[in-house]
Amino acid sequence: MIVTGQVQGVGFRPFICRLAHELNLSGWVLNRAGTVEILIQGEPNRIDRFMERLIDNAPPLSKPTLASWQTAEPDDLDTFSILDSITESASAIHIPPDYYLCGDCLAEMSDPKQRRYRYPFINCTQCGPRYTLIKKLPYDRVNTAMSEFELCSDCRKEYENRLDRRFHAQPLACPLCGPSLTFHIAGEKTISDTGKALTACIEALRAGAIVAVKGVGGYHLICDASSEAIVQRLRERKQRARKPLAVLLPWRGPKGLTAVMEYAEPDPAELTLLQDPLRPIVLVEKRNSSPLAESVAPGITEIGIMLPYSPLHHLLSADFGGPLVATSANISGEPVMTDGDEVERRLSRVADAFLHHNRPILRPADDGVFRKIAGSMRPIRLGRGCAPLEMTLPFTLQEPVLAVGGHMKNAIALAWDDRAVISPHIGDLGSRRSQEVFEQTIDELATLYGISIRKVIRDAHPDYRSSRWAEQSGFPVTQVFHHHAHASALAGEYGLFETMLVFTWDGTGYGEDGTIWGGEALLGKPGEWRRAGSLKPFRIPGGDKVGREPWRSAAALFWECGREWQECPFPTELLKKAWQHELNAPLCSSAGRLFDAASALLGLVSTADYDGQAPMELEALSADGGPGPMLPLAQDENGIWRSDWTPLLAMLQNKKLSKQERAGQFHASLAETIRGQAIRIRTTHRIDRIGLCGGVFQNKRLTELAINYLKQEGFEVYLPERLPGNDAGISYGQIIEACPV
Predict the structure, then answer these.
(1) What is the pTM for the complete model shown?
(2) Cis link prior to 138 (omega < 30° from 0)?
(3) Phi-psi category of 364—alpha, beta or left, where left has phi over 0 and alpha has psi -120 to 50?
């Protein structure tokens, strides 16, 4: 039998071996580069039972598919064994993500009678790191970052005992033969004993220290999340005034959720995902009486909660006994750091102390982030536990391709045959380290999967770092327009290749006419999109600066109407002159910039600390204020239905309404605009399917209002579910758009 799918790094061979022995069958199992091969022999009825249970009873982390089987001549075998793996290049490889700590290992780590009591690197075939420590496949210890740790005699016995849950567990380790912790404070002697290092770390946290802690896919900056002074100190040092910080809560109670209920008000779907093996950061409504420091997530009503997923996180959070900030140890916008020396060098002014370990991290993997929108948990960022993400293409490629994504929230995609693999979150490509990790990820994904890239697909924007890399790569290059990629990502995820209307709303993207798009309604299907709807265009003063300075968008809207924003907090005389002469003032039709302007006009965010701050705080402020102003809709000279945002200005400045009501009406107006455009376009084109994608639709209020309005008109509505709707998903869309059915 040949078994494909996710069958390496998930305890599949040990499962096969135990199943064969249970049914008194002989034979063997071995790993190839991306498949498992099995020879099974014995009584026919027992073989039938084996084949039934092969799929139905497989380990929970595996996803096996019986690709083929055939009868074979019986061999002279009296037992069943695991044979040495066969190294070969094969495109059937499936790289497992990093897994959480399973219940069995958590119980063992908590038992003083066990030799792995409080051991921060405990694991078995059903848990522990994978993606961040695999050098190459087949998945054997020699091909992982654990190869430098020789198994002691006790671990060797477990590894070779088919009845043990650590039978062929490749990251297997114990305090005697495995990785260890060290704790370091500048100017003081390093503590090298694992237990003492952990104790010293807890003491430092209780004393108010900020500690850089090495985890599974990189370092976190960790501190007391209940202390306003300590969280503010972290923000000052990291120069991150308002960006929300993730919170790590201890695993307490029968299902580990007691602490979650103390700090937040999750619904059942959010609770389920918090306990899921993915263990991502989940955005959950804050509890009003929560003792968390207000500065953990200022200006918004949600907090990013994470339950411990590694043994070290369990130990730290349990010993500390309260909420811990656990934010990526990086320079803003860069990938999370993985090297101890680099962390100490670059973050010496941020962290007071460092908790290191000596298990190498071969590649970074930041934490994934999910939010519930329109009834489903949807990814905001792919990361540790859910990436690499594998997608089945709705067609078969003639040659392998690489899609390099965009510039912000970058993630790449590698595709061949009918498969696409989307990388973990890389970040914004504006720094040298981000560029290095971008190139490292390309090289390593191609190497891990044994794929020789033949073509590269890039965004049409010529100045993106990803676009420049593509042009210098030496491969044939295809360019795809940004919003076409968004629309195709959604169509590809659902396998929709008939004409539909997709609203692609975000901050910026290079459009077909050379202007900045971001409020578009695209009609068609992958490879055949055309602009059918948009927003009234306006010039944005300062070009790229508007993303972090929302006041510029607000001022520009007034200038576009021949008026002045009297309450503008910054001088605008010179800026307006440049805008009038169209100097560094590109034309845009961006919905994201409208959200920025609304936030600035309500006095929320004039200058943003992080990408998306202005719309996030606007959404958090919003209350039901009834319907907003109707935006006039008319066709332009090219037949594009354009909505005029001008009535929003008067409403946003109407002091008779509370800020909450104005923010709510703003969302309602834009949701109504989506309905209005969809209805008008349907009058001339037979469409019943509507897609919503782009970063703007990570706004829960807008998206759920729009879906409700559209369903009232009889439309079917689609949102990204497996892929992030923001720029992190466009690499997959680039493949769908450039290689359509």
Answers:
(1) 0.92
(2) yes
(3) beta
